[in-house]
């Protein structure tokens, strides 16, 4: 995998944002494989496809790329995206893409992660204020992806500080995480919220510690009157999926 951009593609462009878009999108199309099935290449989607930049021709998985000029291996908590209504429509259709998040520096990729589509819900999409009447696109309403609200387990590393991970390792980790997917938005929401709680505790934790998040979870799920039951159900689900281990007598351990 060649981490350098093809700078010849920047000729004729004056806008920094346009140059960055052309170079990063080209790099991914030339270098990236499908993290879901392992297909050696992914293809660019048709022009102007909403919330979809790339498609795997083998398994038909969809992807979008978000990139930033940064030396840091720590990704920001909030990432700017496009039209709010379009994003919400796509993720609530349950046919949404997975997202690549890229950091590059001096026209070279230094960090790249992917977040599976099952970790996107309306709660992780922040609606920005509409542009004022004086703006060229008055009334346009964008959004931010709240990357900081997505559990760390869902941020699968592909490149870290210039070191490229083995393809088989990435595909295996993706399948383990993607195995958590739910067929409903409500299920997605509970998965994300309970995983967040688990990650805020030590590697070894107890059921009572999880119950301490009950008030917080009830605010996020006001229509559920059995929060503790739901917590136990989600812990059992995570146990069955190999994310946590039940040690007995209300004790759990997060599996690395």
Task: Note the topology.
Elements: H1 16-31, E1 43-44, E2 54-55, E3 62-69, E4 79-83, H2 84-92, E5 98-104, E6 109-115, E7 125-127, E8 142-145, E9 156-160, E10 163-164, H3 167-178, H4 185-199, E11 204-206, H5 207-211, H6 214-220, H7 227-240, E12 244-248, E13 251-254
What can be said about this structure in brief?
The protein has 256 residues and is α+β, with helices and mostly antiparallel strands.
Question: Low-confidence spans: pLDDT under 50, at least 5 residues?
Answer: none
Share of helix, binned: 25-40%
SSE topology string: HEEEEHEEEEEEHHEHHHEE
**Using only CA atoms, what is the Rg?**
20 Å
Distance between the termini: 27 Å
Structural class: alpha+beta
**Form type:** globular
Please list the strands of the largest sheet in the order they lie side by side.
1-2-3-5-6-9-10
User: What characterizes the major β-sheet?
Assistant: 7 strands, mixed
Mean pLDDT: 93
Strand % is 15-25%
Q: Helical stretch count?
A: 7
> What is the tally of beta strands?
13
Written description of the protein model:
- With 256 residues, this protein is an alpha+beta fold.
- The chain is 30% helix and 22% strand.
- A hairpin with a 4-residue loop joins strand 5 (98-104) and strand 6 (109-115).
- The longest helix has 16 residues, at 16-31.
